[in-house]
Amino acid sequence: MEYMFKFCNLPDDTLTVKMVNEAAGRLHCKLKEIDLESLDISDYNKRYFGSLLRNLCSNLQKYAYILAWSITKIDIPLNKLVFLDYGGGSGMLSLLAKECKIGTVIYNDIYDVSARDAELIGKAIGDQADYYIPGDINDVIDFLKEKSIKCNAIANYDVIEHIYDIEEFLKKIPMISDNNLRVFFSSGANPYNPVIKRKLVKNHYRCELSDREQKFGSKKRDPLEAYSKIRRKLIKDLNPNLSEDQVDYLVTATKGLIEYDIKKAVNEFSTRGTVTLKQKYPQYPSNTCDPYTGNWAEHLMDIYQLRNVLQSQNFQADIWRGYYGDSNTLIKCLAARSLNILIKNLGRHGLVLSPFFTLCGNVAP
């Protein structure tokens, strides 16, 4: 099983695992032949998708793991199954789903440039998804309602740590289907892995306090100014009569808030002298987000609270440990496989070593 993590927990549905592994092998061959420079896609995806291609085997192992667990033992024929790649980004998960001959594959991303590029890449290799939906969860719900489509599985990687109000998002998930729904949301923002946490906290402070330079392939949706500087401008525009000390206080108090919530906080402070609207998960004070879009800088969250929210929506939900894919060097491969053995055998404590976690669940009967 070349395209499955080594020494990890896999479904006991061996036919599905074999089918996904073989599809990943075919997709690998197609993607090795793709010429991104010849495609009319953005510089952002020439850089980002290109980076995925440079370590293609490891990335396919990750997406094969996610897909295999997303579709295993669903009591629906594969050619009738509806799979939603929410926040699909590069579209690699959608490509793999189409290569598996899943009946209906739906790609979504809030960034319209990514949605357009993913469609072009899909066309180029003959694995185009059935639908491409730019927008957020509300746009997806509206589209599915209009088309009378009910999803059976929804999955993603490195998405939930960017959603502004993740708990509200999870409460809306049941609206994409009324039965037989499985969710599998994997995220590299693992707060239990100290190495990852230290790296992400450093990135939080960089986004919060430092301006960034325009680089080739940067996402045009992302601002170059420090988030604190953006909030300062917004606050001063909302109430020019504030003193510098008051502005300083509000810049700190509104950290992790989107523009419309910043407006609420400034209005409350202007009338009552207090700010009660605060970001969630105070145990991770470095968290910060883009004030314009609410896009979090790798949000560190209480992942078991996320599980509780999903359970409150009639899901049987849990947190799973993630594993390491093979690398391009023998030493790194051996290290990854050794870590995978530890992660698998340590149970819940394996999250301390895991490169990602997964919030997974099925609609409770």
Automatic annotation (TrEMBL):
InterPro entries tied to this protein: SAM-dependent_MTases_sf
Protein name stated in the entry: Methyltransferase domain-containing protein
Organism: Methanosarcina barkeri 3
